[in-house]
Description:
Blueprint: E1 18-27, E2 30-40, E3 45-50, H1 56-63, E4 71-76, E5 79-80, H2 90-93, E6 96-99, H3 111-122, H4 128-141, H5 158-169, E7 176-180, H6 188-205, E8 208-212, H7 216-222, E9 225-230, E10 233-238, H8 240-244, H9 249-256, H10 258-276
Parallel strand pairs: 3-8, 3-9, 6-7, 7-8
Antiparallel strand pairs: 1-2, 1-4, 4-5, 9-10
Helix pairs in contact: 3-4, 3-5, 4-5, 6-7, 7-10, 9-10
Amino acid sequence: MAGKRDPGHERHSDDPPIVVEGLVNRFGDFTVHDGLDLTVNRGEILGVVGGSGSGKSVLMRSIIGLQQPTAGHIDVLGHAITEVDPDASVGVRSRWGVLFQGGALFSTLTVGENVEAPLKQFYPELSDDLRREIARYKVLLSGLPESAVTKYPSELSGGMKKRAGLARALALDPELLFLDEPTAGLDPIGAAKFDRLTVDLRDTLGLTVFLITHDLDTLYEACDRVAVIAEKKIIAVGTIPELVETGHLWIEEYFNGPRGRAAQGAHQRSRDAGTSA
């Protein structure tokens, strides 16, 4: 475990926004992570992959303070998340947004009201009119039509729920965006559009994105680097070509299996079409 640091220490703007060192997560006798290390670079879209039960979502929950680790150190935007009282970390928590798998929308609130919820929590001084206008803008930014603002989650398709959840994640103008299986359950066209939206938002808003996915197309189309969880640790981090060169059996099977080859071929065709356009 790394030495204790000042929870209020602020990093320079070019320092990594997320640093995980020696992370251990245990549930009873079951160990999910054992000495996991990971550094996320500023401005990148980092894909996180691993087999079922490898602890991808547990890692994300640890980083955002929803899961108290057994041991280890997590530094987010210059704050030691594992060492501060939850009430004292409210400021840094307003600097990230999270899209949970399935959207996790409040079913009794409209899309607009869902987006307003974090604004009410962190900025109660905002007028009702300004809060509604911000929510409307975030809904449009997520790629939804303005008519979606007044709809309830039950009236939305799966893809629209994802975008509504994304709009809420963007409500506070975050520096970090956490996406948990954002394209799960979407058809290929909807998934491709979400991938493109993720890249566009990163480029436009200057976000750093932590993206958990099983979608090989997403890894090729949206991610700058990929971190692989196996054996209770991050066993490799890099571009997909760099990962394949490691020779690790799980990585080889994941990226060079039939689906991996198909995703790679589709990515290459897309690049070729863009070059010839």
